[in-house]
Amino acid sequence: xxxxxxxxxxxxxxxxxxxxxxxxxxxxxxxxxxxxxxxxxxxxxxxxxxxxxxxxxxxxxxxxxxxxxxxxxxxxxxxxxxxxxxxxxxxxxxxxxxxxxxxxxxxxxxxxxxxxxxxxxxxxxxxxxxxxxxxxxxxxxxxxxxxxxxxxxxxxxxxxxxxxxxxxxxxxxxxxxxxxxxxxxxxxxxxxxxxxxxxxxxxxxxxxxxxxxxxxxxxxxxxxxxxxxxxxxxxxxxxxxxxxxxxxxxxxxxxxxxxxxxxxxxxxxxxxxxxxxxxxxxxxxxxxxxxxxxxxxxxxxxxxxxxxxxxxxxxxxxxxxxxxxxxxxxxxxxxxxxxxxxxxxxxxxxxxxxxxxxxxxxxxxxxxxxxxxxxxxxxxxxxxxxxxxxxxxxxxxxxxxxxxxxxxxxxxxxxxxxxxxxxxxxxxxxxxxxxxxxxxxxxxxxxxxxxxxxxxxxxxxxxxx
Length: 465
Fold this sequence. Notes:
InterPro entries: Apolipo_AcylTrfase (IPR004563), C-N_Hydrolase (IPR003010), C-N_Hydrolase_sf (IPR036526), LNT_N (IPR045378)
Number of domains: 2
Protein name: Apolipoprotein N-acyltransferase
Keywords: Acyltransferase, Cell membrane, Lipoprotein, Membrane, Transferase, Transmembrane, Transmembrane helix
Shape: globular
Strand order of the largest sheet: 5-4-3-2-1-12
Number of strands: 12
Strand content: 15-25%
Subcellular location: Cell membrane
CATH class of the largest domain: Alpha Beta
Structural class: alpha/beta
Helix content: 40-55%
GO molecular function, one term: N-acyltransferase activity
Order of helices and strands: HHHHHHHHEHEHEEEHEEHEHEEEEHH
């Protein structure tokens, strides 16, 4: 709202206003990236800050583009229609250009407001557009002391959101017992070969009291030893889980020594369905391989040039191979799970593509030890809550050092483990059936509505002129 009022006072500086707004927005919101660069990237402080400035300057281009096009093509009276549409387009571009970084979208701020009722209908990007509409409208109308349209827009948008919160889009199908393990392994020792067995023993000992649950989840890359080299240990754990009539899903790194390809994977140990025994097979089909890889952390663009420059560009496990965009659900003890590894949970379209009519649970695993005591893990959890609301599915989120949490289909955290604490947590998960409007239609209805508003507003403006 402040940025729009500044644009109203200085309409000749649309791009600059949007870019400065974006620079502050991302500079404050993704400062957790600096933690991983400074603590694990091996760069001096000045270089780390410089990289952050470059990243935030790039991300600020998207709101700058939205502000510029709004100012360039429309008069202030039509900004409440134009800016939400250009903002929506900018956020869509940000989600896929250069593999995409759809983090910190403004819609996530409404998770605990009446606007949360809109998430199952138009998704987070749509809620962002609604929020921009309200903020832009209030900025334009209040500048002209037009209080009635400002109040009406607030009442309409937030009132309808409150009403939608009382709509039950899905129903509970059944309840299962699920447990998750949080190893709290220091990032500095995760890839030291002599620590492989102690880490694996830690996860196994924490799992022993949990074997009476239907499903047990370990976080991303919980098993630090390459899958091929861990086969004997995995088969032993597979047999033990099957004997207890449960299943364990764990993150692990798989490396093909012939093709020299590496995958960030999830595998299932123990029962696949209620009638089977130990079903784990190396390179079997009941697995998931991460699709959206994190730039620098999991793949390095122009690696022949960048890797020699600094330790940041040569981190352990930074040459992963991309998995398919759409993959079959994991089958674990009769349950079907749609996985998302680490920041894949921030891509709603990919998540929706991998949820089928018989999918039971949305599973997301991560290792947020990279981000220390920053607000990154809390934002990550908030994103997972939003996906639960959008999809009408329970989300279970297992992380190495927090925040491990159970989230119901309404986006509510039912239980969680504290950060930076080794432990385990068990809870009942209500599996749902049904479909939210957003999972059915995605962003298409909101995109069409905004495009009609954009084209209609421009046509009306040209006709008046």
